[in-house]
Amino acid sequence: MGNQTTVIIRNDAIGDIRRNPVEFVNTLAEMIEHGRTGDFAVFSHGNPAQVIETHHADYTVIVAAGGNTAYVIGSVYKWHWPSTIEMASDAIKAIRDWIVQEAKNATA
């Protein structure tokens, strides 16, 4: 397997993306190819999308999206679970580890 990328597309920019699909795809591809994250502009819309992260497909990345952005809050070195209960359990563990690390960083 290869890599995959998490991208937020802001719905209010769909008109600009539709009018400028080549520019949108080329800009998005450029950011992904060079490992860049963050907002990018297309035509008159200043930030129609945001590249959040890129990871190897063997990982499952937990992303919280809201407020016109998203944050990576954990990852698990696994991409297949025999049940959704096991997947949820691994996700909860990853989120717990993220919270512990964030708490340590806040007190450091």
Task: State the order of secondary-structure elements, H for helix, E for strand.
Answer: EHHEEEEH
Report the total helices: 3
Number of DSSP strand runs: 5
Structural class designation:
alpha+beta
Written description of the protein model:
By secondary structure, the chain is of the alpha+beta class. The chain has one domain. The protein contains 3 helices and 5 strands. The protein has helices at 14-19, 21-33, 84-107, and strands at residues 3-9, 38-42, 45-56, 60-66, 69-76. A 3-stranded antiparallel β-sheet has the order 1-3-2. A two-stranded antiparallel ribbon has the order 4-5. Strand 4 and strand 5 form a beta hairpin.
What is the topological layout?
Layout: E1 3-9, H1 14-19, H2 21-33, E2 38-42, E3 45-56, E4 60-66, E5 69-76, H3 84-107
Antiparallel strand pairs: 1-3, 2-3, 4-5
Please outline what is shown here.
The protein is of the alpha+beta class. It has three helices and five strands. The protein has helices at 14-19, 21-33, 84-107, and strands at residues 3-9, 38-42, 45-56, 60-66, 69-76.
Key terms for this structure?
108 residues; 5 strands; 36% strand; 40% helix; alpha+beta
